[in-house]
Amino acid sequence: MTTPLLETRRLSIRFGGLVAVNGVDLRLAAGEVLIIIGPNGAGKSTLFNMISGIYRPSSGTVHLNGHDITGRPAHRIAAAGIARTFQSSRLFNDLTLVDNVVIGMHTRTRTGVIDALLRPRRARAELDAAAERAGALIRLVSADLYERRHALAGTLPQADRRRLEIARALASDPKVILLDEPSSGMDERDTDALIKDIHTVMAERPGLSFIIIEHDMRLVAALPERVMVIDYGEKIAEGHFSEVRLLPRVQEAYLGQKAAHA
Amino acid sequence: MMHQPPVIPASSGRGPVADLSIVAAVELGGAVVLGVFLLADDPRIIVALLGLMGAGFALLQFRPAIEERIVAAFRAARRAAMILGAAVVLVYPFLMQGSSYALHLLIIAQLYSVLALALNFQLGSANIPNFATGASYGIGAYTSALLAINFGVSFWLTLPAAALVATFFGFALGFPSMRTRETYLALVTIAFAIVIHQLLNNFSWTGGPNGLVGVPAPVLFGHSFADPIELFGRRLPSQANFYYLSAALVALAIISARRLHDSRIGLAWNALRGDELAARCQGINVVWYKILAFAVDAFLAAFAGSVYASYVSYISPDNFTFLVSVTIMTMVIVGGMDNTLGVILGAFLLTMLPEKLRIFADYRLLFVSVIVILFLILRPQGLFPQRPRSYGGRE
Question: Cβ separation of A75 and B285 shorter than 8 Å?
Fold first, then answer.
């Protein structure tokens, strides 16, 4: 069996007495898309926070391409090739769209202090090239957004903030992108448009793997991929959505015990 | 420096001639306002000039198109703006009617500009509240003075030495600070500033509260900076030497500030200012960039300290109190965070106001505060707020 691109083994974290994530195994191959669903507070975002290095797991391991990256600092993990978005989109609001995406290329640009001070031409050229690429990435995600690329990120509506976050995540040339509830806070029309844009990105980057946390069942159904269900910090099911949603445990988690047995 | 908006409708006048005239009008207008302000003794003139400045900024605030037009002109005619600006700075001492007091104010204002630019890397770019810039300033001044007095080291060698020592202290302050953030970080830097002041006060080798006397003036190509300058049959007071020295330092600080701001490093600082967690997830080593900001701040502040020590030739711990750091911070906030020009304007304003308002005697600091508050009400983002970056050939 080949090494998976991303793998977690028995990944757990405790906050005091609370076990937020308990022994989650996850495997993701290159180019694969995995959807994680589960009720509020099930531990989905916490799982992302451990993979991306914001939280240090209490036990278990995270491997990327066979290398152990468990508990590494977030910036190292980003450099290793894991990019992410946040549930409450965290953009750099007082900077332009282009600046936001150029910052996403931090791990792919090289200028240090000495270069910036003594070789301004080179530093400038690197940044101009990065801005050029940033423009192209923004256009890939959304043509409308490209028109506004010199506006401040803080002025964007919610749906565009998601798109910009996805462009910023793509900027680091990652191997895996973690999307944390891309449709949260959006209406149906915006969600449909976003699904379309995510499909475009997937088609453009066939080698790129995605893990998407999603609440919106329409979005889950529209992305016909492997689904993993988490409840109370544990993986309770994994498989294709059409099969997983029929499992009694999944129905209990989502609808409550009574409704599921009714 | 002081900017007075020219009376040109924003819609009219495109093209290089219009750009050049706008640049010239703004720079020369600013120079004239500053000159009159410096040389005026009559309180009515000073108050009138402050009113004029206030009106100018009110115009910029309520007619943003004018501000955009001026910025566009400076971008289009960048080279001309720099040449004219440099010429104004070079000629300026000749226009001060031999007033050593005016030159003294200009020197102090320029040194504070360097300090404010130094702090701007932290406060403006990265939003790290550092209350220890005054301490780095002091470390630079004392290092330079001690080397010159005890070992007879030339000023030109003490300058980099002082910067290195202060940078080392910057790192030393930066490391423990990384374990704290925001309010607590501010407290750590305040403690550092007070500790440095107390150490300078209590060590015997720093002269204790009496400080150090007789710091020699720099010598360049046989010309001592304590001597007046004779040029083109004109005689400039000895302060002119330090005026040019501090002007060169400001130029150095501006170039460093611009280059760092327009690079990946400035962007990384802005990122951690905006959202530290998101910055980490973009691969930015937040700890390193914060410590770097401390180091750059200390480096530049020490330059200013060295020049100050050799200029006044007598330094004592009271020149480098915690209050100095607070003043520098106010300059950055009033002038405009992360805007080079704004920060310099803030430094000039806050250095000169207390001096020119001496007529109000005991109430002068009250008036300074009132004026600062009025300016902040008028321009809440600072006199010249941060502007978005531009890339490549974009206007």
Answer: yes
φ, ψ at A69 (rounded to 5°): -115, 20
Q: ipTM for the complex?
A: 0.91
Query: Is the pLDDT score of B161 beyond 90?
Result: yes
Instruction: For chain B, give the percent of residues with pLDDT over 70.
Output: 95
pLDDT of residue A255: 66
Q: Which residue of A85, A98, A106 is the best one to mutate when testing the B interface, meaning the one whose CB has the most B CBs within 10 A?
A: A106
- Domain parsing of chain B, residue ranges: 100-357
B354 exposure class (CB count in 10 Å sphere: 0-12, 13-18, 19+): middle
> Does residue B194 or residue B71 have the better pLDDT?
B194
Domain ranges (residues) in chain A: 6-93+168-261
DSSP state of A172: T
What integer is the mean pLDDT of B339-358?
86
Identify residues of B whose CB sits under 8 angstroms from chain A CBs.
256, 259-260, 262-265, 267-268, 270-271, 273-275, 277-286, 292, 296, 386, 388-389, 391-392, 394
Task: Report the pLDDT value the prediction gives residue B336, as an integer from 0 to 100.
Answer: 84
Q: What is the pLDDT of residue A49?
A: 94
Residue B65 pLDDT > 60: yes
Interchain pair A98, B391: CB under 8 A: yes
Give residue-wise pLDDT tens across range B33-51. 888 888 887 878 888 888 8
Element (H, E) at A174: none
Higher-confidence residue of B306 and B175: namely B306
d(CA A7, CA B235): 77
Residue B378 confidence (pLDDT)? 80
Contact call for B259 and A90, based on CB within 8 A:
no
State which residues of chain A have pLDDT below 70: 1, 224, 255-262
Q: For the domain with range A6-93+168-261, which CATH number is right: 3.40.309.10, 3.40.50.300, 3.30.365.10, 3.40.50.2000?
A: 3.40.50.300
Q: What band does B10 get if pLDDT is binned at 50, 70 and 90?
A: very low
Tell me which of B117, B281, B337, B395 to substitute to probe the interface with A (most A C-beta atoms closer than 10 Å). Answer: B281
B100-357 has which fold? Answer: ABC transporter involved in vitamin B12 uptake, BtuC (1.10.3470)
